[in-house]
Design goal:
The chain is α+β, with helices and mostly antiparallel strands and about 280 residues long. The chain is built from seven helices and twelve strands. It is elongated and about 95 Å long.
């Protein structure tokens, strides 16, 4: 397509140079009419038709989902529900707010929305794709370079639209397979007495009503899956670093960090209880 555009550019510039330097006088009307017919009608129809045909022949391969790896992403106000599907898995693996991809492998994204229109966009890897309630859209990407990238919602979706991001980590295929196997496993049990107390408090204050921690009684589906929360790079859908201090701030005053969030703030908890819950969550790797 670039080559065809270059040919067209040279033709147009050639006609312009010819008209200015070698034909200073007006041409007869029939010459102008032929120019319009040949260069203004026939040439664009033939050249653009050929380019369109060529582009359409590429579409089946560009949209091919590859070998079955699919990631279902649901946009919600204001976070991302992520589900990995693959023939290699016994069941889908649920995560949130972070996506990992194998380099050199085609991955199909299955996109929808739980509330309003969102737009899924990973600028370094591909174009935008709208996420529409009640309608599934599909996007196929094949990253070629390992690294960490930032994805965003590119459609205004409410109060905290600007605070709705996600991280994308492209890994070597073998490393991705190992990570996915670990992600499919249940949560690690608490490793310290403080974390054990935090796990008990997690259930007592009602966190399990909204969040899932696989392998525990917490089976809520309203909020993000927290089974492997500590392994993620960010909190709050890509807006905060994932460290104990920030996690405590998030739990204590969610509304201040993400206005309009459905998660209630737990600032009423004693500091000791809050720190115990943080210790438990930091152990979910």
């Amino acid at each position: 397509m670039l080559a065809a555009a270059g040919v067209i550019w040279f033709i147009i510039i050639g006609v312009a140079v010819y008209a200015v330097r070698t034909q200073p006088k007006p041409d007869e009307g029939r010459i102008g009419g032929r120019l319009i017919l040949y260069l203004g009608v026939i040439f664009p129809v033939v050249s653009l038709g050929a380019l369109l045909t060529y582009g359409l022949t590429l579409m089946p391969d560009l949209r091919s989902p590859g070998d079955g790896l699919a990631i279902a992403v649901t946009g919600e106000q204001w976070w991302w529900r992520v589900e990995y599907r693959s023939p290699e898995l016994d069941a889908p693996v649920v995560s949130a707010n972070e996506i990992r991809l194998p380099a050199g492998r085609r991955t199909e994204f299955i996109l929808d929305s739980a509330d309003v229109i969102h737009s899924f966009w990973i600028p370094p890897l591909g174009g935008k794709m709208d996420m529409i309630p009640g309608h599934v859209t599909r996007l196929v990407l094949e990253p070629t370079k390992t690294g960490s990238y930032r994805g965003v919602c590119a459609e205004f979706c409410g109060t905290s639209h600007a605070l709705m991001a996600f991280s994308v980590v492209v890994m070597e295929e073998e490393a991705f397979a190992d990570w996915l196997a670990g992600e499919a496993a249940p949560a690690d049990p608490p490793a310290t007495p403080v974390a054990e107390r935090g796990a008990a408090l997690f259930g007592q204050v009602g966190c399990g009503a909204c969040h899932t921690v696989r392998g525990t009684p917490a089976e809520g589906v309203i909020g993000p899956d927290l089974t492997h929360l500590a392994s993620r790079a960010t909190l709050g859908a890509g807006i905060l670093p994932n460290d104990p201090e920030t996690l405590a701030k998030w739990i204590r005053d969610t509304e201040a960090l993400k206005p309009g969030s459905l998660m209630p703030s737990f600032g009423m908890l004693p500091e000791e209880d809050l720190n115990a819950i943080v210790a438990y969550l930091e152990g979910l790797e």
